[in-house]
Amino acid sequence: MVVASISRSSVRRALLKGIGAEQIISFLKQHCHPQMYKLSSVVPRTVADQIKLWEMERERLEFTEGVLYKDFMSLHDFNLLSNYASSNGVLIYSDERQRTMVVTKKGHPSIKTFWKEEQAK
C-alpha cells in the first residue's frame, strides 16, 4: 500500500517557486515506488487533474490598471461615454445599472477630452 499526501498549499508553494503542474506530475511519476509501475496509471488521473486545477486557479485573474468613472448624472451620459470608450477599445468594465465604468489608463486622456467636447456642445 502506498500513501501520499498532496495538499493545495503544498502545490501552491511549488507553483510560487516556478514549478508547474506538469513538472509536479512528472516528478511523482519518476519517483514513485517500483511496484506502482505495474499499474496502468502511476499517478491517478484525479490527482493529476486536481494539481492542474490548482495551477489554473492561480492563473485565473488578470490585473489591468484603469481609471474608474462613476456617479453619472444621467443614463444618457453614461451610455455616451461607455459607447465611446468601447468603440475605441479602452473599456475594461461597464455596469449600466450602477452607472459605473472602468477604462484603461492609456485611454483616460482621450475619454476626458471627448467628455469635455461633449459638455461644450
TrEMBL record:
This is General transcription factor IIH subunit 4. Belongs to the TFB2 family. GO terms for biological process: nucleotide-excision repair; transcription by RNA polymerase II. Component of the general transcription and DNA repair factor IIH (TFIIH) core complex which is involved in general and transcription-coupled nucleotide excision repair (NER) of damaged DNA. GO terms for cellular component: transcription factor TFIIH core complex; transcription factor TFIIH holo complex. Keywords: DNA damage, DNA repair, Nucleus, Transcription, Transcription regulation. GO terms for molecular function: ATPase activator activity; double-stranded DNA binding. The lineage of its organism: Eukaryota, Metazoa, Ecdysozoa, Arthropoda, Crustacea. The gene is GTF2H4. Its main location: nucleus. Pfam families: Tfb2, Tfb2_C. It comes from Portunus trituberculatus (Swimming crab). InterPro entries: Tfb2_C, TFIIH_p52/Tfb2. Component of the 7-subunit TFIIH core complex composed of XPB/ERCC3, XPD/ERCC2, GTF2H1, GTF2H2, GTF2H3, GTF2H4 and GTF2H5, which is active in NER. The core complex associates with the 3-subunit CDK-activating kinase (CAK) module composed of CCNH/cyclin H, CDK7 and MNAT1 to form the 10-subunit holoenzyme (holo-TFIIH) active in transcription. Residues 49-116 form the Transcription factor Tfb2 C-terminal domain.
